[in-house]
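To assess whether ligand presence alters the predicted conformation, the chain was also submitted together with iron/sulfur cluster. Input:
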Amino acid sequence: MSTFEPVLSRNWSVADSHTLKVYESRGGYQAARKTLATMAPDAVVNLVKDSELRGRGGAGFPCGLKWTFLPKDRKATLMCVNADESEPATFNNRLLMERDPHQLLEGILIACFATRASTAYIYLRFEYIRAYRILEAAIEEARAAGHLGKNIYGSGYNLDVWVHRGAGAYICGEETGLIESLEGKRGWPRIKPPFPAIEGAFRKPTVVNNVETLCCVPHILERGAIWFKSIGTPKSYGPKLYTISGHVNRQVCVELPLGITCRALIEEHGGGVWKGRKAKAAVPGGISMGLLSAAELDTPLDFESLRKPGCLGLGTAAVTVLDDQTRIIDYLYNTCRFFAHESCGQCTPCREGTGWLNKMIQRIRSGGGRLEDLDLMLNLADNLGIMPGTTICGLADGAAWPIKNAIAKFRGELEDHIRTHQSPAHEVSRLQEDIAQGRQADDSRARLPILNGLLTAPASSRQAPGIGSV
Ligand SMILES: Cc1cc2nc3c(=O)[nH]c(=O)nc-3n(C[C@H](O)[C@H](O)[C@H](O)COP(=O)(O)O)c2cc1C
Ligand code: SF4
């Protein structure tokens, strides 16, 4: 096998890698110059299509193909660069922007030329203050040097790039939530169709691409589709930035060919599991993807292979390791809290389902679980998301997958927890107490120590069907 040469992170260790001077001295903007001087936009689209570059933002949709969905007779096109990066444990986009912002700008320039977009908005995660400052400075430099603005390289092509800081919400990373937020509205995902390519930001045809996806583009233009497809595994081509965090000795971001196994990533790049322990499980690509058990760690981290062990997909390729002393109930406690908090609330199955799951996990964790709760949670998880067709966006699937995977792979541990943590004076929420007492439900967050037997209160004393089992 040929030696792998990192390209996306190749400048990261160079001093002042965020500056135009360094980027140009290392061949930067040559691909864009050549593209604008010698290629027609459609030829660029075809080249990216041939490379089979798949989106790195989570869904893995083919990039070039997405660009072909733009209407042929469009009068205007907009580009939204998804730099929201709010999937927990994911930080590759941040490093790309902080350490090599001109690589991203070159990718944007080529992608906008290909799709005939004249304005690009970088929708940046609000918390990324350093990246914001670096991007603003890089855009200024690029404008002054003629890489952006009017008549770029004398080609007659114009492009402006603006940074728009996000609203600090996970849902604003979903492409139509992002567009709504960019337009100044609440970040509520839109019902599709129409897809953004037909009617996106400000009702114009819009391309939404992730930061890392766009950073691959200059390298494809420079080295060709065959080079790109020589890296990775079938249907998952090219280099990928993997992040590793959790219970490992080294928490890093590393560029590798798509398809490295989770075990190799942990052992060779994460320095192994910390404190000399073993791995119990690993989250393969952000918490919405579910989890791999220790026995499944030899699964390749690519777009196709992760479905076999029942994960949702590669997601953001952000691996989080759980050591053998971590309780699965605690992992579920964190994931359920996150999704219940981040659900935008438009779709009833997602809004209510994430809330119920969260309350059930809190109850089980604090000693009030029943064995039948696990099947009830599976039932809930099976009924929310795009997959069963009950919600507008994929957040709900992301909320369901950790539950599905944890119960399928760690049922014994969860049952043991339920059996051995039956506390006589466990805590439940005020809402549960109100329901049990037949009072008007007050969904306060206050938690009270309550009496034994509360959760077995007769169904007749409950306020609403279903809620009593939360
Ligand atoms: C709840 C949710 C959150 C998302 N967050 C992000 C994000 O932070 N960054 C991102 O690039 N894509 C995110 N996505 C995926 C985007 O909707 C979209 O597929 C992606 O930006 C397209 O770019 P790509 O094709 O280059 O991957 C999210 C999707 C969902 C359902
Ligand atoms: S699935 Fe959830 S997050 Fe997505 S639009 Fe519906 S309620 Fe909002």
